[in-house]
Fold each of these.
Amino acid sequence: MTSLSRHPGLAFTLLVAMLLLAAPAFAPAATVTIINLDGAGEGFNDPTPRAPVGGNPGVTLGAQRLNVFQHAADIWGGLLTSSVVITVEANFDPMFCTATSAVLGAAGPQTVEMNFAGPPEHADTWYVAALANAVAGTDLDADFSDIGITFNSDVDDPACLGTRSWYYGYDGLEGTDIELVPVVLHEMGHGLGFLTLVDDTSGTEFMDFPDVYERFMLDLTTGKHWADETMTDEERVASAVNNGNLVWDGPAVTFKTPLVLGPRAHLVANAPPAIAGPMAMGRASYGAELGTPGLTRNVVLADDGAGTTSDACTALINAGAVAGNIALVDRSAGCTDLVKAQNVQAAGAHGILYVDNVVSSTPPTLRGTDPGLTLTVGAVRQADGNAIRAELGGGVNVTLTIDATRLSGADDSGTRPLLYAPNALAPGSSLSHWDVQAHPNLLMEPALNTSVHDNVDLTRQAFEDIGWLPRVTAVDESAPLAFRLGDNHPEPFGPATTIRFTLEHGAVSDLTVFDVSGRLVRRLASGWLEAGPHALRWNGTDETGRRMSPGVYFYRLTSGGFAGTRQMVMLSR
């Protein structure tokens, strides 16, 4: 066995920039223990009185912080299987923070191991401590905890991020504050193995050996996995910025991806003929939800009359021309994308189409939160935006919609999710995150999304791929009651049916309906479910409320370390 303590710099930060914020059914869950490293009167021991909030019973600031950490630890513990206690050293300390940006936290494994007894599936391969211990069935390095985490206590200071502060509830109702639960889940995820140890600037592997995460990093341009002996350091450097062409291809993840990710954003240029056809389009975390048939309007260049007149950083002076149409707006450093959208909507536009201000192989994904924004939002690559701009004199008409044949955040195979590999390397974020194009947003993206709460989505399957004990794909009804997926009733049905199941333990759970092609039809539950019997009704509609055709469908329940799938038949609408 080879063991090595965490090397300098092995910490992964979640940045808030510009306010961006099969195991048998009786297998035991893992125990995740939080070790409080804070001193008296600070961090987890801060005695400042606080009223209980969002299911968190703590009555001091420190107690609420510790409760959230243990709540996140319990979620991960319910999803993983290990006979060895997973130990997490944690504390709150002042970290970088200004009125507009902050480091929320940093985390990583304390040690990594290879060639330990177990045996692991892959020899001469680094495993993070918690995973290595789980596979070996013993604590391989008892002198160290498994994971180290530091969170920014300054977020609760009004001088940091203005009026925003940590939200310590469990219910996801953070409003304009920053919910701590998903950030802790995210950082623990890195410590549990969602990371590569490769030096992303030189492409060299840690101590000249691959890590298990690398074995599922596939570069579509070279056709090589990062752990392949034939892949050179130079090829890994190029792959790290091969935006849209670096994917995860583990079997558990590729099975689940079509059931998690939604359709890809899509622009269709209707006129003139010179640019007619489809174009790649990015989404925003604000504005109207994209759908079909989408928004079809003429495109008008925004004009605010100041500086870069097409960046919409101030009120538009051509509101009469923009009203009712789609405003073409240049991204810029002059103001945030959110401010641009606010100015465009105030001018009466029904949509906004951003043109990227950097050259990239994929369109940008836009961040921000404003419930008051109701216009349709899209973003295109610089080259596509310039092509649209060049035809404006003769009139341009486009449709902002979705492409139901392709998934947002996956390659064109529809099964392999993209890893974050932006054209400009983002140290601490590139590679060890899902790509920002994913929709719905995923827990392990590099920036906090308000839509993410306590669902660990594809990360659970990534952990199965790297060696955490696999989950069952069928349920033995004679097994002890840890998970029981019952029948739907009535069956056959029309137009609605009720699906019943029982959980022995509370856990993060998903109940999804999909068709015979494996396409996600409807997500009936996603998040933490308490122990006990449950009954959820499906009314025969998809995510958009559209009635489905009669036929065969499947429902799949995943909960904690277990999963099961059953067939049902809809006879009529």
Note: Residues 5-28, 471-482 have pLDDT under 50 and may be disordered.
Amino acid sequence: MTPRLRWCVLLLTTLRLFIFVTLSLSLSALQASPTPAPESTASPLPEPATPAIEGDPQLLIVTGLHGYIEPCGCTIDLTLGSIERLVYQIKALKQKGPTALLIAGGHLFEHEEVPEHRRAQDEAKARLLRELLSGLEVDALMPHAIDLALGEELYRSISVAHPERDPTVNIEGGQPLLLTLGALKVGVIGLGAEGAHHPNGGVLLAPLPAAKAAAALLKAQGAHVIIALSSLPRAELRALAEALPELELVALAEGAMEQPTLSPVGPGRYMIEAGDRGRNLAVVRLTEATAPGPLLDPLGDRARRIKDLELRLKMRSQMGGFGGFGRAKGDSDALRQELAQLKASELTQDGKRVAYSLIPISASLPVDVEVESKVKAYQRSLKALNLASATGPVPLPEGGNGYGKLEECALCHPGAKTFWEGTAHARAWETLEKAEKTFDVECVSCHVTGFQAPGGSSLGHTEGLQDVQCEACHGPSAQHAEVGGGESGTRLKVTEQVCRGCHNELHSPKFSYADYLKKVLGPGHGAPLPVQP
């Protein structure tokens, strides 16, 4: 072999080793990172299953309910949730063994600030929700600062009527809860974000010292398993869980994703993310949990290791096996062997074990008849309730630009009106009429034009402004019509931000500005009219 050839071989070998080490380090970092890994084409995790014994103690967890009674009916993208289906599922699961129901995060209101025209309805809904939850005999309810959206006095009134067992510990006088489920003792710790206001009074303190003290107290009281319910940001909660091995389970109460499996945060410790707004119910089955030793998730741990091995092998395959290096090839063979053995192995059947499942609250589930009746009574009450507090349309200030309404627009834009009549925007009010929600302030605002805007519509005053008309997107344009058109007195370009006023993640989760825009542009409205013969 010539010196030049030897040099080339050496250079190629070094390069391949550099790539191998870099990929290995990157993969290790990826595994350690708390952020979700990029989507892989490797075999997906198995469907959630609960290989637990009937009668095992179980924890049912609901996080971030946020005043959610039912899914928005405007789109087929939103079908999960409804309080009557959630209650039915909880009651059904309670028949299967000793059960604790845990609710954490904001549960009464959707927003921190409630507009004046929504106050009466939001208060009625908050009282209804707390009544329905009280009927479920909630074992622990950790509130959130958002529950004070209508003030401390209302929250105290609701709590007097329907008391809660609050496990928040990082508050002056806060104490954890010790729940007894058959022979199993479960400790529950609530942790809020430092500096936030607590609905029951006071400001939340640093969570870590409080969590340490509460965990020590629970262990002294004989707790076999400790779970923390926390409204801390995800990264902070993971760091706290990593620092406190006594916390075997931690449930993210605010900003949680819908994770069908547990997420490890350390040996024998797992994070629960069940989503929000009652669209999913987390079920934690505990088997032989009075036994000593770490808590194991046999199904989840095996599924995660299988996915890890498949990802490593895929990376090696894409790199061509690293050119036949003996060590690299041996590593791949060892990974394949481990993968085959793991897939053929049986789940661990002894020791302290957890089995987790995330149940979607879908339209196929039955409803609790009593809850359904109360929800319908609440909905029937909205007309009188909201009209009694409605103040009428907001007056147009002198010299202000009012709403010309559809027929005024059509005088100069008949082609645009003709095209609009074939869009879903032209049937927006009809959908409310069919659903009997024309007096529901949560719905009306996006089904009329100029809601609560100066010179626009308001609850009970929608004549001439029903449906999503031209001015819902282009803004009030009476002055534009008065001067005979042109570029003044109207919004010619409709930005994505305008559309997202209604097409937000709660009402239109699959909204794509570019794709949806195509549905509202056509002849006479962004496209030339057909040539008349």
Note: The longest helix spans residues 3-32.
Amino acid sequence: MRRALSVGLLSLALTGCSQAPAGRTILLISLDSVRADTLDFGDAAAFPHLAELATKGTVFDQAISSSSWTLPAHATMFTGEPAPLHGVEFDDIAIAPGTTTIPELLHDAGWTTAGWWTGWYTAGEFGFERGFDTYTNGMTGGREIERRYRDALARGDMDMAKRVLATFDIGGHRDITSPNVLAGLEATVETVDGDKDLFLFAHLFDPHYDYIPPAPFDTKFDPDYKGSLDGHDFFENRAIFDSTQSPARRIGDRDLQHIEALYKGEIAFTEDYVGRMLASLEAAGRLESTLVIVTGDHGEEFFEHGNRGHRTGLYDEVLRVPLMIRDPRSLEARHVAEQVGLVDILPTIAGFAGLEAPATSTGVDLSAAVAGQPLATRPMISSLMQHHNELGYFFVESYRTEAAKVIRSMTLNEAGELELVRGEIFDLKLDPGETRSLVTKSTIMDTPRWAEMEAAFDKLRTKFHTLSPVSRLDRSTTIREVFASDLGGLGYAGEAGEEPELVSPGLSLPWPPGPRPALEK
């Protein structure tokens, strides 16, 4: 009965039937770990609610994330800054004080703001809670886990704090949280006065591995599978990937096909709850005046480039994300081919609210494109900071246009100088799978694409230094305290307790404005 009611109300809303006038509403939905090529907004059989929403919405076919994992990607969503600019690329660093986020922008303008988070990397202490009237942990038992974590910190028991964080991590992979977020959203919508402007943020973690969707979504996309492999403990399962073996990929094609079907099932399960959220807004008379933005934070790799999961590289399977905007001011179905990014979410929300985006944002308001106006093409910059046992401290940067993409991996040599480990350029028109680099490490720096990338980073670097950068210590999260004796575990190459020389928010932008120091090929 509940499901039928939800679908019926959503259908009613999209045919234009209105209820009492309401305040403006913005609903920002972040679907964790969802690839753009898996979530098809036109596939009514797989994703009926979003397909129906898309009949009055705009789908952006090339939406690019700023990184390949949750924390920096959401920091970009909330600030309109690419990852190298906001610098939130390690577990121990938060959005800089003074950087205006979406909820702060709206709250200061009188909006009621409410959000729900369901994975540790969207926790409030990273700066995401700033500006929210309520920012709620949607994990099952999440508030109790948070209490245990705070108590351990207060006692100085860092071993216990680490164990509680492990509970967050492991429990989040196995948890089912979309129902918790729906319940919170429904309660908020029911209690906030209808004439109040309302911002809602829903982070939905269920598509993230493990891939264990409940029935009927567990068999929906692969009903004929007869094997024994399931999606439990996906990342740790040595029947899928074993770094001690060669090749490390151990899973066969048919089992991998099943894993991908389970992944799609998780997305379909989560999409069902998106439909219920939309129905809740319609029941409250709000949907007709609601800006709905549905996107992903990053994608997922299924061995396209030799690995699984995410946070390993910057190829398109992890950078291209779904993005649809349903703007009540322009209810025509459209597809936009021009490249956009997560940096554009904040200015788009600001524009809908009649506000100016903060000076720190580098994105653009997409509402003109939603209304059918031409959209200028722009390159997108993404980055990934990591610690590697063999390379030490290294980072990956990408520069993507609609036609081509540059990816470079760099590290610091023993002298503390930048050294190019790998360089690739791909023709995305002829080689969308990024399988054949047009250059080698020794030739990439001599190409026009490399020069374009350097110029783009120089522009970002100049902006970085005009923003009065906040020191890393002033942006620390509790993670830094918990892992103070093991900074390498957080991605540092320096000795325990030592602040690495080049690590300022962002690593690739620490130098004064001007040309980047020469790299060693």
Note: The CA atoms of residues 249 and 506 lie 33 Å apart.
Amino acid sequence: MIRLGIDVGGTHTDAVVMNDSTVVGTHKAATSTDVATGIVAAAEAVRADCGLPRSAIDAVIIGTTQFTNAIVQRRGLAPVFALRVGAQSTAALPPFCDWPADLRAAVRGGVAMIDGGHEYDGKPIRPLDETALGDAYAALGAARLESLAVCSVFSFVNPAIESRIYAEVRRRSLVPHISLSGELGGVGIHQRENATLLNAALRPMAQQVLAAYRDALKKLGLPARLFISQNDGTLMDAGFAARYPVLTISSGPTNSMRGAAHLTGLADAMVIDVGGTTSDIGMLAGGVPRRSGGEVTVGGVATNFRMPDVLSIGLGGGSKVTPDGRTVGPVSVGHELARRALCFGGDVLTATDVAHASGLASFGSRGRELRLDPGMVRNAMVTIESAFAAAVDRMKITPADLPLIAVGGAAFLVPEKLAGVSRVVRPHYAQVANAVGAAMAKVGAEAEVVYTRGNDNRDTALERARHDATAKAVAAGASRETIEITDVDEVPISYLDEPVVRLRIRAVGEMQL
């Protein structure tokens, strides 16, 4: 299978062509202001370099930070009406209650809280308040918004209420985009609702962005199916991603770590991906990214996503350097590096200039000879080394020294020796490890259920979770015949009278082309 993997970063857009697990060709270019244009340019360049006809490419996989950036920068987000079912037991924490003020102002379009919902066993808590629900429909219609987020207590166990609301809102044509919490998260109504609200805020933008991707590839003459990277290292097709754009958040670091593992064959190691603006540090355990054990915050909002445990620091190839060399970053020239750095004829002193002057990097005929103050260069290199060493120390969970895999376009900034590191590994194609990780990924999805211990409840719950996860994976673009269950997590739920267990399953399969 011929795959074209593309990873869009803040500074560079990387592309790679892979024939099964073998890298055939690569291309790295500056990210364009119009992201779709940059993707098309990278795709065409790497295809032409490999001499492949357009019809030979079976699938295009894109890892993008556009939706993450929209949340972080508070741009392109749609106002959302929040409808929560379960007011009788959740009124103390209303929707948007813990959001940063600026993000809340951008997204909060209206709130309705009504009685109803289910218990952990799927039985109703109390009857649905039909009068309040009718009032909520009226308020939603009057608000004239594009997006609705519906969150009902334990809806992932019993989706009946959310499904009913979805059908009625559709029948009345009240909003074009509806996000249901039972499809996005599990235990923890507050974090599940937050994830649903973020997803709803991204839906209109996602529809436009992904349509632009498809149209651009179509105009380029690439008939291949389009997939998008998820935050757990798996893929979903573009149609699925248009409905669940929030699942793309933090996919970049995951792609880099998976790409690093593939390129080196190392199963247990630290990974540092040095880009133009930031460096992401994570850990491989058994060949897969170590997952965050705590609450995941996205743009200042608490969610319950399963994401890699990654530390990001404001240090990259485009980081600005002060005249004394004692401060490097976090401000960066970003995608303007090739124009604004001193070594490329610009007027800004960057970390790339320091590396070029110290002999760590060479840009051939493109790079100008620099006569920088040796003292400043030494100070800057010490600053860079100290920042990397501190980040590695924060991410380690063992006193033993581990290999450090250095990838990314500015991996040349990583020194050969760092405290706590046994050796620095620089694999071939390290500069496009993120695109490699995207290209080699499989399609995946998760399902979550709860069950009470005893009798055959666990077997029944396992079968239901397997069925739901498999159905979601197929909807995301997986070939049913290739699907495998790769993860089964069981965690007891505290503070309940009965021994209740949360069961989460992941299904992964090959692309259906």
Note: The longest helix spans residues 189-220.
